[in-house]
Specification:
homodimer; 343 residues; alpha/beta; 434 Repressor (Amino-terminal Domain); Rossmann fold; 3 domains; six-stranded parallel β-sheet; six-stranded mixed β-sheet; 12 helices; 41% helix; DNA-binding
DNA sequence: GTGAAAGCGCTAACAC
DNA sequence: GTGTTAGCGCTTTCAC
């Protein structure tokens, strides 16, 4: 079932079929109608492969994420897909399983079949990334700055987000705090880590991963250091931490407060509901697409975008044990939102 | 950067380059080495598009899921991707957002660019599905039987799974039970629904969706009917139900027991830990690939596979209020696992 | 307005 | 062994 079949049955040339099917208005309405009818009854579907080769473009973009099982990424991908779809682009998703090598392989593989790439929270190191993307196709990164002129990024103001939780916790009277640090290869983690260390006196840093099981495993280390507050790399880790604290019979937020990052849907459905730094997931996806679309066009837009997170205070954070009753001495923060702004 | 560039620089024909790069051993080792060296230093990457057109096959399969944000699907997809990767196939994932129309569009779109399709829990109706897949490329469905000879499936024995929870609940003394039914378009839901109605006397059926917010919203209706046990379409819904019960100050499992389906990772990290029917997600993915691979080969393997779920008893289910203390009268079930078996 | 023909980058007969 | 050649299914000048 090729364009030739349609052309023959419609008594026109393949060129004409192509014109009609691509909405060129330069065709006799009568012929156009005939072509449409025939291709409909033949259930003709042009081969995207052949179109891709002939056009030199596939109208497809690839997005690579470290872990689809972390609901954060699907949220971003969904918004991205909708936005790209509006511009008639398809998106294909791939999961690197938090593995830098696999990520690099996926970049290579996808590069051969798509018009552009969106790397969500890429884990590969700078040099490898630069090499993989070099001379390659239009690429945008989310959650990471990579060689700015080469690649354009949409990032989150992690410092702001971290400061927001930290100030909130300080106002509640907490003095000893732990940060459950995520993957060493995560740029967001590095930024968050830097922000805690800069803002909080002598924080306890516990290296962990990005999954609930990691959070579960890391709680004892934090507790041993005598903390009353635990800030986690992400919500999945925070969920694990909550579970461990419960297993250890530590009241949350009575004895220890817990906060996460991301604001995945589940954060609001657990007990106690999770206080977290919400990242604008949908906007992250949308903006990523917009940036990529620009690069796909003229090619050399070099602006990056920075989005602002917002603190969502729920039930997992409260007064530090032994703090004076009544409102905290710091300014009440509550749940504040900051508008995101381009940069 | 095409194969012609490599050929020129290596002083051979394009055919030879192609042979070398495709691992044909029919080439002079000296030439082969030279070709490899040149293509390496030119950083040559064959165009998957051109290869696809020339070979008539892309070595890529598409998988369509209703909702990537439900961790159940990423688990399946991950296992599927690993299995396909072992056979040198790439996987592209698409999310239909629980929308039958979108799903059909995705089938159409992907059909034009992949060698085979895996439809996870497809939501479109039988007729549309049959039409979309008809004469189309090799397809396998998971979680749904669709026109068996046309499409081959890997399904879960939902009846068995439902019976397991139901028996467990009955043994705990429950008499009034609600089933929070998922999307009407879900085959799994239809099967589970049929199983409750066949096995439980006068169950309360509450129509809901597939997300936590749906579960949250549906709890009052169940409570109004005076139930002491709630079985949910999936774990996400169960998480929402748990949250609502807490908001309503109903003790779980003291006053009401809750169970889900799937066993997503989070099920074990919430409070109380969720009793659920575990579906063999990894095996679902693996078997789907194996079935598709067979169809990709000779083409007409027509066997389907049925996998067995297992009841995982955690903390969200307990004795019905007012039941006699001591062990339940029914046979103790605990957490039992049944080996999955082909069919 | 329409068709013929060239070509996208690759593979695979088929000769040599 | 290796090169020549003919496509794969489509788009797109370029004549007519």
């Amino acid at each position: 079932m090729t364009i030739a079949d349609v052309a023959r049955r419609a008594g026109v040339s393949r060129a004409t079929v192509s014109r009609v099917l691509n909405g060129q208005h330069t065709v006799d309405p009568v012929l156009a109608e005939r072509v449409k009818r025939v291709s409909r009854q033949l259930r003709y579907q042009p081969s995207a492969i052949a179109q891709g080769l002939a056009r030199g473009a596939t109208r497809t973009v690839g997005v690579i994420v470290p872990d689809l099982a972390n609901p954060f990424f699907p949220e971003v991908v969904k918004a991205l897909t909708v936005a790209a779809g509006r511009d008639d682009f398809s998106v294909v998703v791939a999961d690197s399983d938090e593995d830098a090598k696999a990520e690099l392989r996926l970049i290579q593989d996808l590069s051969r079949r798509v018009d552009g790439l969106i790397l969500c929270s890429p884990r590969a190191d700078k040099a490898d990334l630069r090499r993989a993307v070099r001379k390659g196709l239009p690429t945008v990164c989310t959650n990471r700055l990579v060689d700015p002129p080469l690649t354009t990024s949409v990032v989150i103001d992690s410092e702001h987000g971290m400061h927001a939780v930290l100030d909130h916790l300080a106002a509640l009277g907490h003095r000893r705090l732990a940060y459950l640090a995520g993957p060493a290869s995560s740029f967001s983690n590095a930024e968050r880590l830097r922000a805690v260390e800069a803002r909080w006196p002598d924080p306890v840093i516990v290296a962990t991963g990005s999954k609930s099981a990691d959070g579960y495993a890391s709680v004892p280390a934090a507790l041993d250091a005598g903390v009353t507050a635990i800030v986690c790399f992400n919500d999945l880790v925070a969920l694990g931490a909550l579970a461990r604290l419960r297993a250890l019979a530590r009241a949350v937020p009575g004895e220890v407060s817990v906060a996460g990052f991301d604001d995945i849907a589940t954060a609001d459905f657990v007990q106690p509901a999770l206080t977290t730094v919400r990242l604008p997931k949908a906007e992250l996806g949308r903006r990523s697409w917009e940036l990529l679309r620009e690069r796909l066009g003229d090619g050399t837009s070099t602006v990056s975008v920075r989005l602002e997170p917002s603190l969502i205070v729920r039930e997992s954070t409260g007064m530090a044990p032994g703090s004076p009753p009544g409102p905290p001495t710091g300014a009440p923060l509550g749940s504040f939102e900051s508008p995101s702004s381009p940069n």
